[in-house]
Amino acid sequence: MTQVVLTETHGKVGLIRINRPEAMNALNNDIVDGIGAAIDAFEADANIGCMVITGNEKAFAAGADIGFMKDFDYMHAYQTDFITRNWERIKTTRKPVIAAVAGFALGGGCEMAMMCDMIYAADTAKFGQPEIKLGTMPGLGGSQRLPRAVGKAKAMDMCLSARMMDAAEAERAGLVARIFPADTLLEETLKAAQTIAGFSLPVIMMIKESVNRAFESSLNEGLLFERRVFHATFALEDQKEGMAAFAEKRKPSFKNR
Ligand code: CO8
């Protein structure tokens, strides 16, 4: 049986590839469980400082597998806790996750990319929430994360019209952090991930946690959270090392402590 999720380690970066090319990487339980297991392993590996999730050149993922869910009824979706049970592991990992998107990121695929901490896109990337065409709606966070990323007007437009957004528009709108030519997407994303993973792991985690607070709290609560975590960095050996290295004009050597 083909493995629908492949993992590789590149230095301090854990790479997760969705590998179901015959179905445009349509997401099913095997894939999300595989992604969950990969994240568990990279989270537990003290050598890993950043993760990358990618698909192939045609699709990051063209949505949830329509065949898998087309005969669901309400009680099945509710009783099996569809999505909530196992589709959101990306959301809980404390290490940063970058989505490297080439080709289609539609429906649950777009939502999964948005669940990551940031999206790097190939110039071929296309984002969309076309569930309305299927008589349903975004269910993996799209109606909440898309407006936070691109604002209400574009999010409403995409969810209601089912139109796709190309990479250039996605970058202008704030959905995507960086765009690369398709043939260099993975290489450039791994390079950026290596840069991140080279910093102090507790600081990486504290920054991720603080930026995420911006979307989950009022400004004053978020500022207070940031201030407390910032104060806490002065308890780190890596802060002493980072600032001493700057003063001594040398490269810091972080110990993740
Ligand atoms: N589910 C199942 N199979 C799919 C999916 C999908 N989402 N997308 C593509 N495939 C399959 C096709 O059926 C086809 O299979 P086959 O060769 O056996 O006929 C194969 O992938 C290749 O696809 P196409 O021939 O259609 O390729 P095209 O290049 O012509 O078109 C598209 C590519 C535009 C991506 C087109 O396939 C498409 O529109 N796909 C459906 C996109 C969609 O509607 N996505 C939303 C799905 S609903 C959803 O995600 C609900 C989210 C709720 C949360 C769920 C948690 C994730």
Looking at this protein, list some descriptive labels.
10 strands; four-stranded mixed beta sheet; 12 helices; 45% helix; six-stranded mixed beta sheet; binds octanoyl-coenzyme A; single chain; alpha/beta; 257 residues
Q: What can be said about the biggest beta sheet?
A: 6 strands, mixed
Helix vs. strand class: alpha/beta
Radius of gyration: 19 Å
The small-molecule ligands in this entry are:
octanoyl-coenzyme A
Description:
It is a single chain. The strands form 2 sheets. Strands 1-2-3-5-7-10 form a 6-stranded mixed beta sheet, with helices on both faces. Strands 4-6-8-9 form a 4-stranded mixed beta sheet. The model has no long low-confidence stretch (mean pLDDT 97). It has helices at residues 29-44, 66-69, 74-79, 89-92, 108-115, 142-150, 152-161, 167-173, 185-197, 201-213, 219-233, 237-247; strands at 5-10, 13-18, 50-54, 59-61, 97-101, 104-106, 118-122, 126-128, 165-166, 178-180. It is of the alpha/beta class. The radius of gyration is 19 Å and the shape is globular. The longest helix is centred in the N-terminal third of the chain and has 16 residues, at 29-44. The chain is built from 12 helices and 10 strands. α5 packs across α6 (142-150) and α10 packs antiparallel against α11. A hairpin with a 2-residue loop joins β1 (5-10) and β2. The N and C termini lie far apart (42 Å). It binds octanoyl-coenzyme A. Octanoyl-coenzyme A is lined by residues 23-24, 26-27, 62-67, 83, 87, 104, 106-108, 130-131, 134, 138-140. Residues 23-24, 26-27, 62-67, 83, 87, 104, 106-108, 130-131, 134, 138-140 line the site of octanoyl-coenzyme A.
